[in-house]
């Protein structure tokens, strides 16, 4: 007799796999053993016996969402009064630097716990994070421990700022690092934590923050480091008119041209934002296999950008891989990847002037397969297929927001809402169950977060 598998999710309203053939199974089920999906079937096929059975009646079953760009520490300064109504990127950075210069290990750890818990409630099972301020050593170590405790797959990027105000860049002296120190710390992190295996919970990347605060050496040596250690490269590019003006004055080139000059246009790279690429640049990204992390709220929250929303439809049509990121909690304030996926769908429809420009499935494919590809894990996560990690999000559709959604729960999930995941499962383990986080003591986490946020913002603890 065949022994039971670890977990069976059965009897769903619909299982939408986001695999290569777009499998959608009414009454679909999936079986999990040792953290991996071992079988998938529909209402007409018999599932195996299992130790734990989850009845998904009335639920849509999707892959876990993958957050392709994030700065978790920023939830310590959400809606920070000094920056809430600043209209340009340069002033925005300067408004935050005093507070961010007070980051310590406890603040970074609890911001990671709170941020990943909020993301898990939105169906997210893997998140990148880009930490480019290091007023104290070993802040990413604290993040990795927090991510392990909560059980969300974590892709920290060892970010940096290597040019300061004295060089005409946007970074105060206390946050400028030497390139050699950045590389030494990156090597330490990769050797201590980077796990390249398919079931990995932690993979480390390297990523100078932006051309506005990075030296030529940091840009060039990061690519050599990524090649030497076989890790991914990440940065911000083409996200604001201030950046374009700064880069034009410093290099006489457009931002993406400079990334190309520095050897960044390759399959290792995934770049956040890319709001205003021209036709040639889109084709260059596609030809090089560069992924884009689209963060739609960021492009709107400060009033919108002069060129309008980014041309995501054109990028997809040209063959550019696009994932979705929430960005930091000062660029989007919320950390719901469901909401950011919905926002991405709406923003592209507005840009193109037609609903067909971005379907619910298009948006969810970016949030699953697109994100998985961006962080270098297509084939491991982001789809519900035999042999992939059992990272699953389960959404109840028998609730008030979805009353009347009869034909198509996938479109319903994106058009209606607000939505919160009913279950979020990573490698077969529950991170959210019955709508509640199970690996975080939420009241205690909020108490620690309030203390840390007060300290970072320079306020008396409230
Ligand atoms: Zn960012």
TrEMBL record:
What keywords are assigned to this protein?
Hydrolase
UniProt entry tagged with the keyword Transport:
no
On whether Hydrolase is a keyword of this UniProt record, the answer is: yes
Extract the GO molecular function terms from the UniProt entry: hydrolase activity, acting on carbon-nitrogen (but not peptide) bonds
Q: Domain of life here? A: Bacteria
> Which Gene3D superfamilies does the record associate with it?
Metal-dependent hydrolases, Urease, subunit C, domain 1
Which Pfam family, just one, is annotated for this protein? Amidohydro_1
Query: What InterPro entries does this protein map onto?
Result: Amidohydro-rel, Metal-dep_hydrolase_composite, Metal_Hydrolase, MTA/SAH_deaminase
Q: Which residues form the Amidohydrolase-related domain?
A: 60-397
Q: What is this protein called?
A: 8-oxoguanine deaminase
Q: Which organism is it from?
A: Mycolicibacterium obuense
């Amino acid at each position: 007799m065949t022994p039971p598998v670890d977990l069976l999710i059965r009897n769903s309203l619909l299982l939408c796999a986001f695999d290569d053939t777009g499998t959608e199974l009414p009454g679909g089920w999936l079986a999990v053993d040792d953290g991996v999906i071992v079988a998938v079937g529909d209402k007409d096929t018999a599932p195996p016996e299992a130790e734990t059975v989850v009845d998904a009646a009335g639920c849509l079953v999707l892959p876990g969402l993958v957050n392709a760009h994030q700065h978790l520490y920023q939830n310590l300064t959400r809606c920070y009064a000094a920056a809430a109504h600043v209209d340009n990127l340069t002033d925005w950075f300067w408004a935050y630097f005093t507070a961010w210069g007070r980051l310590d290990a406890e603040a970074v750890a609890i911001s990671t716990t709170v941020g990943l818990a909020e993301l898990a409630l939105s169906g997210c099972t893997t998140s990148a994070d880009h930490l480019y301020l290091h007023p104290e050593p070993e802040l990413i170590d604290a993040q990795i421990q927090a991510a392990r405790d909560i059980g969300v797959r974590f892709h920290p990027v060892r970010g940096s700022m290597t040019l300061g105000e004295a060089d005409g860049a946007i970074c105060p002296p206390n946050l400028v690092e030497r390139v050699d120190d950045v590389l030494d710390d990156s090597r330490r992190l990769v050797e201590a934590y980077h796990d390249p295996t398919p079931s990995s919970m932690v993979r480390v990347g390297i990523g100078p923050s932006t051309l506005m605060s990075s030296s030529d050496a940091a840009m060039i040596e990061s690519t050599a480091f990524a090649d030497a250690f076989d890790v991914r490269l990440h940065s911000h590019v083409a996200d604001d008119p201030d950046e374009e003006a700064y880069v034009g004055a410093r290099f006489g080139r457009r931002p993406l041209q400079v990334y190309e000059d520095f050897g960044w246009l390759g399959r290792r790279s995934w770049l956040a934002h890319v709001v205003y690429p021209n036709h040639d640049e889109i084709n260059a990204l596609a030809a090089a296999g560069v992924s884009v992390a689209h963060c739609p709220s960021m492009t709107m929250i400060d009033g919108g950008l002069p060129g309008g929303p980014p041309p995501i439809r054109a990028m997809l049509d040209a063959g550019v891989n696009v994932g979705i990121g929430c960005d930091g909690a000062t660029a989007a304030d919320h950390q719901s990847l469901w909401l950011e996926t919905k926002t991405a769908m709406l923003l592209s429809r507005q840009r193109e002037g037609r609903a067909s420009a971005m379907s619910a499935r298009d948006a969810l494919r970016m949030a699953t397969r697109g994100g998985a590809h961006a962080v270098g894990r297509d084939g491991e996560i982001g789809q519900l297929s035999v042999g992939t990690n059992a990272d699953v999000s389960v959404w109840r559709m028998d609730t008030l927001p979805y009353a009347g959604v009869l034909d198509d729960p996938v479109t319903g999930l994106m058009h209606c809402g607000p939505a919160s995941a009913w279950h979020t499962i990573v490698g077969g383990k529950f991170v959210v169950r019955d709508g509640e986080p199970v690996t975080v003591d939420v009241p205690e986490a909020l108490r620690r977060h309030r203390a840390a946020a007060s300290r970072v913002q320079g306020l008396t603890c409230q």
